[in-house]
Amino acid sequence: MNQRAQVSKGKAMLRTFWKYKALYLISLPGIIYFIVFKYVPLLGSVIAFQDYNIFDGFTGSKWVGFDNFTRMFAHYDFLNILKNTVLIGVYDLLLGFPAPIILALLLNELRLVVYKRVLQTVVYMPHFLSWVIVSGIAIGILSPSTGAVNHFITWLGFEPIYFLGEESWIRSVLITSGIWRDSGYGTIIYLAALAGINPDLYEASEVDGANRWRQTISITLPSLLPTIMILFLLHIGKFLDFGFERVFVFLNPLNKENGEILDTYIYSQGLLAQQFSYTTAIGLFKAVVGVIFIVTGNLLSKKTTGESLY
Amino acid sequence: MKKWIPTTMAVVLLAGVMAACSNSKSAEQPTSSAAASTKPAEKTKFSISLRTLAFGHVEKSPDINQDKWVKKLEELTNSDMNIVLVPHKEYEQKMIQMFATNDIPDVVQANGGVNGKELAGSVKAGVFMPLDDLLKKYGQNLLKKVPKEAWDKVTYQGKIFAIPEYLSNPSRRAIFVRKDLLDKTGLGVPKTVDEYMNVLRKFKEMGVENPYMGRENFKYADSFFGAYDVFPYLSMFEKQGDQVLPKFYDTENMMKALQTYKTMFDEGLINKEFATINATVFKNTILAGKAGMWSMNANEMLQWETQLKTTVPTGDIEIIPAPTGPDGKGGHYLYGAAPRAYFINKNVKNAAQIVQFFDWMMSPEAEKFFTFGIAGDTYTETNGKIDYKAPTDTAGVDEERYRQSFLWLVQDTTYNKGTLGLTEEGKKLMNIFDTTLKNEGRDGIEFEPRLDSLAKNPDISPISDQAPPVLLSHMVKMVYGKEPISDWPKVLEEWKSKGGNDVIKEANDKFNSKDSGTTVIMPRK
């Protein structure tokens, strides 16, 4: 390529830039926000490789290489915590992820608009409760002596179950409470996608004699697939990131064995015991796993369905 | 045609962002400069961080620096304080953030001596100044009144680094009983564990829902560990033979204590769901009149009794001696000698004045001000006799408590003599502190700073009033019958293998070598 072409290309770029200067100006605060609050703090991850002391800072703290990672893998409970994290992540993916889709499909089948609106609002609501409140409600209704759930169980003639006092129940409680709180809110995107489906398709299929079930399988689901795929990719990127608060509020010594996940472990070790470097290493490990998942997922999805995040 | 729209929008957006950024600063400036201009030079000007301690009056106040009592305090001491509040719940995190960002006020309030977690090692890092010389010159009253144990808590490598608030009677937790119910049992005040169990069984028979009120992690529900002297807490090392070991190594007594709780659990004397009962449920259950006996801080007695009476008019709360174990003693764990302490930043210029400010807290003038408030406003004085009406409404009580406990930065925090002395119930409570509580309580050997091996591994490390997580899980499971109590030696093995061996080695090394970096605090009782 000769020099002239390069110059003119640069000029053209400048010209476009000038032409859309207002747009670039508007995007500036956003770009600055991401640099200052998202990219600069990333540099803080170096403390995972240091023996960090807050009074010496990044520059003064001693470098220890991969010591913190070694310590993490050598920890007597690491495998158990990782197992819990992965298991809860898998359950959430299998049960928690499809819940809003199913709910959206069901809502979509409602023909009475007023009823649909009311129902939508009702299922959104729990999302606005904090986890502390959700756990309070859960502990209340699951209580073996006073809770509604156990009243029902005893009415059926079974022994009451101390859901929060049993290791075997904690994961189910975590997933169910998550579904209860967030699946309604999660339907928003799917309902929007559903609204975008061309009604002609349904009319045409009706002419062809397709019933509701057939329509859902052959029109609604394929139309939703791109949205589902994108959200799925975003979800597996956060696979190990189940969230600290929603687990922490349910943990007690009786169920910790099966309930402790990386996030709650980071909280107790990092914030309460001030092991900053160590827990940054764990956090970094989580993030790396997340990146690997999202990249592979994206690649697979691009190859198979043509849908991708980037 | 309408090209101007995006451009203007962009400008407006940017301007908005900038305005939002600069607003916070411009709002602060006028107040501080105005305060400075009224009376410059002489005033003792300093900033101070204070934990809100979940005090209603503090947490609800829109701006604590504009508070009437702060203003008055500043007037009396000719000072200009800038109080920086640290939220109670996230205290440790916020404090560490403060040190990490190097945004340290002139005076920093900390909780437990020089090695508290909230200080994040700042004393060792040389953030604060030693105060010995200043105290000799300007803090005579403090040196005279504050007891040695409290000074010990704030001494590092032989130098005093903070001004401590102190607790002359560290036995603060007590057994509370519903006297009206106890009278009905006809059993009299119980003393030993067995007598206690009989009372609890009778309570159960009478239909009391929670004969002994349990709570998650045995917090404020640990009275029977006290009876057997096996608190698995931070300050609870003891000499067993020629070794320094944690008290929970006393397998025999630990198993007896656990068995006591298991019996209570099996017979329904403690709530079957105590593992999930949190502080709020705990308090509400008691105030609803559904508990017969529980453990809590003695100084809150009058307040709780008032609240209980709104639901159960006949409810009568009383403090009785805690259950005694095989050695004839009992009680709860003892609080540290210095509940709050004030460190002075080494960059501060007017440290002498600040020390004087704290010294004033010990004066009769201060005592009168914090106890009764302002003459003509909250009390009247005729011929030296003070007429003070204690507030009865919630907001008023909150405000009084705030003035007497929160704002009175250095004092003996056992109880407020001034106001308690005004009422019969108050006098009775003071008497309980001076007799019942003074004679009970469990203490052990404590290391300051905390042993490195404990600091590094929170799983095996207890906190001031809670067992280490590794033990706690087993303790709760044993009480719930999921593990046999006879497995306690196995639990000890687990604790040892997860890092406990290092703890014992370090404890014994430090106990025997008496190196200058570590203070070994011997049991007070």
From TrEMBL, chain A:
Domain ABC transmembrane type-1: 82-297
Highest taxon above the source species: Bacteria
Any matching Pfam family: BPD_transp_1
GO biological-process terms attached to the record: transmembrane transport
GO CC field: plasma membrane
Lipid bilayer topology: Multi-pass membrane protein
Gene3D superfamilies (UniProt xref): MetI-like
Keyword field: Cell membrane, Membrane, Transmembrane, Transmembrane helix, Transport
InterPro entries for this protein: MetI-like, MetI-like_sf, UgpAE/MalFG_permease
Compartments where located: Cell membrane
PANTHER family noted in UniProt: BLL4140 PROTEIN (PTHR43227)
Similarity field: Belongs to the binding-protein-dependent transport system permease family.
Protein name: ABC transporter permease subunit
Organism, scientific name: Paenibacillus roseopurpureus
From TrEMBL, chain B:
One Pfam family matching this protein: SBP_bac_1
Gene3D superfamilies xref list: Periplasmic binding protein-like II
Keyword Cell membrane included in the entry's annotation: yes
Protein origin, superkingdom: Bacteria
Signal peptide annotation: 1-27
Keywords attached to this entry: Cell membrane, Lipoprotein, Membrane, Palmitate, Signal
Presence of keyword Signal: yes
InterPro entries to which the protein is assigned, alphabetical: Bact_solute-bd_prot1, SBP
PANTHER family: ARABINOSE-BINDING PROTEIN-RELATED, POLYGALACTURONAN_RHAMNOGALACTURONAN-BINDING PROTEIN YTCQ
Name of the protein described by the UniProt record: Extracellular solute-binding protein
Lineage, top ranks: Bacteria, Bacillati, Bacillota, Bacilli, Bacillales
